[in-house]
Amino acid sequence: MKLAITFDRLRLEEKELQKEAEKAGCKSELIDVRKLSFDVTGKKLSNDFGDVVLQRCISYYRSIFLARILENFGVHVINSTKVSEACGNKLVTSMLLAKAGVPTPKTYVALDAESVFETAEKVGYPVVIKPFTGSWGRMVDIAKEPQTLGTIVEYRESMQSPVEHMYYIQEFVKRPPRDIRLIVAGDEVIASVYRNAPKGEWRTNVARGGTTTTFKLNKEIEDITLKAAKAVGGGILGVDAMETKDHGYTIHEVNNTVEFKGAQASTEHRIAKKIVDYVIREAKR
């Protein structure tokens, strides 16, 4: 079996995945998609992507365009275009989670700056403003009152992209200074860790200095996590949960191209191996 691992930034995760693929007896190739082009009107691909592609692009648009092109030529891609689109767009994620009955923070979308302040009042201050796409906590802000919200809106309105002139507004969930990252492969939670916010920061992203510590998986959060993964279409996913005092666990994001360097440091599980094992099983189906 040949496994292609596609990426647009080569990280430790992709290198570990290739090592585990080789250990499992797979031929594997790391493919930098920034160097590729595709004849999308042709009858076949000029590159050999093997039996299955593990799609690891960071860019939202690059990941869904690549997956759609490869699937159009009959290539088995993990995660699929459908899953990539569902996870990469926070609006779609929130709607799918809510529709599936997964506990998730109250979320509104304002389609113009004119309705932002009225919408924030409905959600209740403080509110969290997020971009519809993106990772690593970039452009995620908290507004504790209208004045701060106004500054955020003024900045967003100055941006050229029209999508930044629409607003994803979420309630601020009262929680400890941490959240929980759960990594899913198919119908199994293969790793779970706390992500702890650095001093003076409320965001827990490891890319922003957050640290990981061990989290002992329990049946309640395992069931909620697998339900969330199923809601977005399944595959290899990073599910982010928060602990609330009054309502238990709530799922606030599901990540399509999950990073696991931080999680690996706080778990005994070989995350890359479990991901490769899942990919091989899916390829043989």
Secondary structure: elements and pairs:
Layout: E1 2-7, H1 12-23, E2 27-32, E3 52-55, H2 60-72, E4 77-78, H3 81-88, H4 90-99, E5 107-110, H5 116-123, E6 127-130, E7 141-143, H6 146-157, E8 167-171, E9 178-185, E10 188-196, E11 211-214, H7 219-231, E12 236-244, E13 248-255, H8 261-264, H9 271-284
Parallel strand pairs: 1-2, 1-3, 3-4
Antiparallel strand pairs: 5-8, 6-7, 6-8, 9-10, 9-12, 10-11, 12-13
Overall description:
The structure is a single chain. α1 crosses α9 and α2 runs antiparallel to α3 (81-88). The longest helix has 14 residues, at 271-284. The radius of gyration is 19 Å and the shape is globular. It is built from 9 helices and 13 strands. The model has no long low-confidence stretch (mean pLDDT 93). It has 3 domains: 2-86, 3-Layer(aba) Sandwich (Rossmann fold), CATH 3.40.50; 87-93 and 174-284, D-amino Acid Aminotransferase, Chain A, domain 1 (2-Layer Sandwich); 107-171, Dna Ligase, domain 1, CATH 3.30.1490. The chain has 285 residues and is α+β, with helices and mostly antiparallel strands. The strands form 3 sheets. A 5-stranded antiparallel sheet has the order 11-10-9-12-13. Strands 2-1-3-4 form a 4-stranded parallel sheet, with helices on both faces. It has helices at residues 12-23, 60-72, 81-88, 90-99, 116-123, 146-157, 219-231, 261-264, 271-284, and strands at residues 2-7, 27-32, 52-55, 77-78, 107-110, 127-130, 141-143, 167-171, 178-185, 188-196, 211-214, 236-244, 248-255.
